[in-house]
Amino acid sequence: MKAHKISEQVYCLYADIQTEDLFEGIWPIPRGVSLNSYLVKGKKTAFIDLFRDWSGAEGQFEEALASVGGAFDTIDYLILNHLEPDHTGWLGEFRRRNPRAEIISTAKGINLVKSFYKLDSGLRAVKDGDKLDLDGVELVFYETPNIHWPETMVTWEPASGTLFSCDAFGSFGALGGRVFDDEFTPEEHVFYEKECLRYYANIVSSFSTFVERGIQKLDGLDIKCVAPSHGMVWRKNPKDIIERYARYASYSRAEAGKSSGGESEIAVIWSSMYGNTKLGLDAVIRGIEAEGVPYTICRVPDEDVSYALANAFKAQALVLAMPTYEYAMFPPMAYVLDIFRRKHIFGKTVLRIGSWGWVGGAKKEYETAIEALKWESVPSMEWAGSPTAEELKVLEERGKDLARIVKS
Ligand SMILES: Cc1cc2nc3c(=O)[nH]c(=O)nc-3n(C[C@H](O)[C@H](O)[C@H](O)COP(=O)(O)O)c2cc1C
Ligand SMILES: [Fe+2]
Ligand SMILES: [Fe+2]
Fold it and tell me: pLDDT per residue over 142-174, tens digit each?
């Protein structure tokens, strides 16, 4: 693969990762992910963000570097905006091939270089506003802590107006030979937007406050190109991705009792062993459809929690359908709620429904599980075995009630 030119002095290099491995050991990436790095060339050369040798990444980077006459041993500075191993896993091998490059990161980043990779020389810690002169082009560093690790920073190249933002403004989805936002069709953008939401909900959503702070901090820069470490490079519409991230961050800003956390839609997340819960859910969905409110639907554990998380993060309201299982919630739903708490899926308006066999138990566990979530509940509904015609009517009304709240 070749390097992609951003300006005379700035190039994007990336590896498309296609793997059955889970990202961060937890999130599926059936359509892959890209690991992006950047080469900035003055008389001196800087390489921004490294990679992990995953699914042949090393070879892809070597080839891209060679396409612009570069090699790992000619790099003068290695800039590490973020130390997570997807961007640093290859650091030991890089050091073996290039013993003289100076490794630059925040003070916290340098500590992580030492603890993860046991390197102790040729390291430089930079602070907010520090500059690096490459003799012909200059880089500036801004600390943007906690997006999504504590050591994170971004690197700014003022001449081309390129912001190397690392995980911020990133997305899942392999790129397939292209990299710039203007090289993808509107249909492809729809796909990548979904993968961007899932990436944000999975990786970044617990840190939305810091995303907002970071965006505010960078407000004064005349950003012409957003160059993240995953996903496309935004040279045509850099504001699109910044505004999208600002909107996503706002989904986490919900307060108790206010259904402000998300868009006017409903995320239905359901589970069922033998279909009795599903019968009731179908009635709820009829109610939602009657009110014309858009909804997404996801069954667990058949579909990975990663998708349920993205849908729930975006929606103002949720329907959670679960049967009772061994005097408690159906276990995959307990896992969903646990992930929602960890990922700050706060301030939603929620309808819970489900079937039980002899005494129930899901309700009690559910009510304890949601205490930390600042959710507003519409009256929940449970039934024994399969729902009666009367119960189905009530369920349909509950679906309408929830939809009307979303519309109001
Ligand atoms: C493994 C298993 C455990 C169950 N545990 C309970 C229970 O503790 N309490 C209860 O009232 N019903 C229990 N049930 C009954 C289910 O809640 C009941 O069959 C319900 O209708 C299942 O809904 P579904 O058809 O949507 O899966 C259990 C069923 C199964 C298969
Ligand atoms: Fe990361
Ligand atoms: Fe990353």
Answer: 999 999 999 999 999 999 999 999 999 999 999
**DSSP code at position 380:** P
- What is the enclosing helix (H) or strand (E) of 141? strand 138-143
- Could you please report the per-residue DSSP string of 45-74? EEEE------TTHHHHHHHHHHHTT--GGG
* Mean per-residue pLDDT, 361-380: 94
Residues 14-59: tens digit of each pLDDT: 999 999 999 999 999 999 999 999 999 999 999 999 999 999 999 9
Strand, helix or coil at 185?
Answer: coil
Query: Rounded distance, CA 202 to CA 206, Å?
Result: 9
Distance 24 CA to ligand 2 centre (A): 9
Instruction: Report residues near ion ligand 3: CB below 5 Å.
Output: 86, 167
Q: How far does residue 318's CA lie from ligand 1's centre (Å)?
A: 22
Residues 203-215: pLDDT tens digits?
999 999 999 999 9
Angle between helices 186-199 and 305-314 in degrees, nearest 10: 100
Pocket residues for ligand 1 (CB within 6 Å)?
Answer: 272-277, 323-327, 355-361, 385
With H, G, I as helix, E, B as strand and everything else as coil, classify residue 220: coil
If we measure between CA atoms, which residue out of 73, 142, 153 comes closest to residue 110? 153
Cite the beta strand spans of 256-395 per DSSP E.
263-270, 295-299, 315-321, 324-325, 328-329, 349-356, 376-377, 381-384
Cα 132 to middle of ligand 2, angstroms? 24
Partners of 124 in beta bridges: 104
Task: Indicate the pLDDT class of residue 255, thresholds 50, 70 and 90.
Answer: low
What is the mean pLDDT of the segment spanning 331-345?
97
What pLDDT band is residue 256 in, cutting at 50, 70 and 90? very low
Residue at token pair 């980043």: 109
- Cβ(348)–Cβ(318) under 8 Å? yes
Question: What is the number of the ligand closest to the CA of 280?
Answer: 1
Record the pTM. 0.95
Both tokens of 57, joined, read 């990444």
